[in-house]
Design brief:
By secondary structure, the protein is an alpha+beta fold. It has three helices and eight strands; from the N terminus they run H-H-E-E-E-E-H-E-E-E-E. It has one domain (8-138): Roll (Thiol Ester Dehydrase, Chain A), CATH 3.10.129. The chain has helices at residues 8-18, 20-23, 57-76, and strands spanning 28-33, 37-42, 49-50, 54-55, 83-91, 101-110, 114-123, 131-138. It comes from Bradyrhizobium retamae.
């Protein structure tokens, strides 16, 4: 895969302008993105929890999907209409309350029309994933 087509600063600017509903409140930060991988952090908030005090599935799915979008944009540039065509998630263990959620995404294959990747979701500083995700994105003609 090639070098990044968008830097972290360019990604943040693009996302604030084009996808403010997901990226304007400062809850999610892009720690790195290099055209092949990215690392996102979602700051802990009690709204992330489901009954029983674990990080909710919708929180984790949204974070994984967003991480795939970010790593893809870092690889192909500002293609806002790239969309998820498949997302599969395996919940592995409980996400701990009080901990940020990290999403480490990696592109596995980048084609002309489809991109396939995986995301490991982590809770705080634990090296053990709380969920593993595979996802496919459709890339529109540009």
């Amino acid at each position: 895969m090639a070098a990044a087509k968008m830097s972290v600063a360019e990604l943040e600017k693009f996302l604030r302008e084009e996808f403010p509903q997901a990226f304007s409140d400062g809850d999610i930060t892009i720690e790195s993105a290099d055209g092949e991988t990215c690392l996102l952090r979602r700051c802990y908030d009690e709204r992330m929890l489901r009954p029983g005090g674990t990080v909710s599935g919708p929180t984790l799915m949204a974070m994984a999907d967003f991480a795939m979008y970010v790593v893809l944009l870092s690889a192909i540039g500002p293609v806002g209409l790239a969309v998820t065509t498949n997302l599969n998630i395996n919940f592995l263990r409980k996400g701990q309350p009080g901990q940020d959620v990290l999403a480490a995404a990696r592109l596995l294959k980048l084609g002309k029309r489809l991109a396939v990747g995986e995301v490991n979701l982590l809770s705080g500083t634990s090296p053990d994933p709380i969920a593993h995700v595979t996802a496919t994105y459709s890339i529109p003609n540009t």
